């Protein structure tokens, strides 16, 4: 083994092993048509109250759907749910 190969091997052995990033794939998430509609308006920056007016639903009804969406994605934020739904092709921004 020459000097540069030995140095490379020692350096490589000292570097921490990085875990692979979590896969986007997993159990398929299914959203109801209403959940997709609510999440689509959320992605466009609408508040729960505004979404309620648009889809003819109460603000608490919109929040109910958002709670279900967050539960399905196992996230705490509506914005992370939006990101995951976009990433998985469940909603689209047109």
TrEMBL record:
InterPro entries associated with the record: Sig_transdc_resp-reg_C-effctor, Tscrpt_reg_LuxR_C, WH-like_DNA-bd_sf
Biological process annotations from GO: regulation of DNA-templated transcription
Keyword Aminoacyl-tRNA synthetase included in the entry's annotation: no
Chain residue ranges for the region called Disordered: 1-29
Residue ranges of every copy of the HTH luxR-type domain listed in the record: 24-89
Alphabetic keyword roster: DNA-binding, Transcription, Transcription regulation
PROSITE patterns: HTH_LUXR_2
Residues spanning the membrane: none
Keyword Transcription regulation belongs to the record: yes
One Gene Ontology molecular-function label: DNA binding
Biased composition range(s): Basic and acidic residues: 13-22
CDD domains to which the protein is assigned, alphabetical: LuxR_C_like
Domain of life according to the entry: Bacteria
Entry protein name: Helix-turn-helix domain-containing protein
Organism: Pseudomonas kielensis
């Amino acid at each position: 083994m020459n000097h540069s190969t030995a140095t490379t091997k020692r350096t490589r052995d000292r570097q921490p092993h990085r875990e692979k990033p979590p896969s986007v794939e997993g159990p398929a998430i299914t959203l109801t048509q209403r959940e997709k509609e609510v999440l689509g308006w959320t992605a466009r920056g609408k508040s729960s109250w505004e979404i309620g007016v648009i889809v003819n639903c109460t603000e608490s009804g919109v929040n109910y759907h958002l709670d279900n969406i967050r539960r399905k994605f196992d996230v705490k934020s509506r914005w992370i749910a939006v990101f995951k739904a976009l990433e998985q092709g469940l909603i689209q921004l047109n």
